[in-house]
Amino acid sequence: MGQPEEGGARRETAVAASELPPGQRLQRGWPVTHYGPVPRFKPDRWDFRVFGATADGDKHVWNHEEFSALPFATVVADLHCVTKFSMLGSEWGGVPARTILELAPPAPQVTHVMVWAEYGYSANLRLADFTAERTIFATHKDDELLTAEHGFPLRLVVPHLYAWKGPKWVRGIEYMAADRRGFWEERGYHNLGDPWREQRYSYQEEPGDGPEL
Ligand SMILES: Nc1nc2c(c(=O)[nH]1)N[C@H]1C(S)=C(S)[C@@H](COP(=O)(O)O)O[C@H]1N2
Ligand SMILES: [Mo]
């Protein structure tokens, strides 16, 4: 026997060559990677806020029950950590970022968003990255509710960017009329974070890629 295992190994090599961004390797299982402690979910205190330059000038707030009632969708996407491991082909379930944009539209001058999470973690995105078809606020992965370590009750998944651009334990979105660096973008990571262009570190940035450091 042993035939299936060989087949498996061959497939993995093929996957690594054709589907992984440069410098990434395939990861078995799902490691937990983040800075700081895992927050405890308090359902009665949890809310999701859209603020900053909204079209109507108001802050939009959903409590957990209201957020859970928003239309559910799924997206198949890979996760690429800048520390070089990738996890391929997960099915993320939750609320598409586009749904939030329709319910709480940004003002015309908005060019970027800051995604805010528990304990002040943040990640900045160009509006186009946020409105991308597959960007999703995930509550589920592969039909199972997220665990606390993986971001329960809500994490952002931005399939086409490195995973630090998708905060776990996300609590809100700030609409911005100019770019501003988030948590890792201020600490040496690339302002844009495209894994296919291997935009890992801020020293690789070209003029126009981000605000002055
Ligand atoms: N709030 C928060 N979200 C975060 C991080 C973090 O430090 N804090 N780390 C990011 C990084 S670098 C990665 S690779 C992924 C890891 O997600 P996982 O632990 O579910 O694999 O979460 C991202 N989201
Ligand atoms: Mo990461």
Structure description:
- There is one protein chain.
- The chain is of the alpha+beta class.
- Helix content is 15%, strand content 29%.
- It has helices at residues 3-19, 64-68, 97-103, 127-130; strands at 25-26, 47-52, 60-63, 73-80, 85-96, 112-117, 122-126, 136-141, 144-145, 155-157, 170-176.
- Strands 1, 4, 5, 8, 9 and 10 form a six-stranded mixed beta sheet that branches.
- The radius of gyration is 18 Å and the shape is globular.
- The protein starts with a helix and ends in a 37-residue tail after the last strand.
- 31% of the residues are buried.
- Molybdenum atom binds at residues 33, 81-83, 163-164.
Query: How many domain units?
Result: 1
The global form is globular
CATH first level: Alpha Beta
CATH topology: Sulfite Oxidase, Chain A, domain 2
The fourth-level CATH homologous superfamily is Oxidoreductase, molybdopterin-binding domain
| Helix/sheet category | alpha+beta
Alpha-carbon distance between the termini?
A: 57 Å
Order of SSEs: HEEEHEEHEEHEEEE
The CATH architecture name reads Alpha-Beta Complex
Largest sheet, strands/sense/barrel: 6 strands, mixed
- Average pLDDT metric: 93
* CA gyration radius, whole angstroms: 18 Å
Number of strands: 11
Percentage of helical residues? 10-25%
Region (Disordered): 1-29
Protein name: Oxidoreductase molybdopterin binding protein
Domain Oxidoreductase molybdopterin-binding: 36-184
Pfam families: Oxidored_molyb (PF00174)
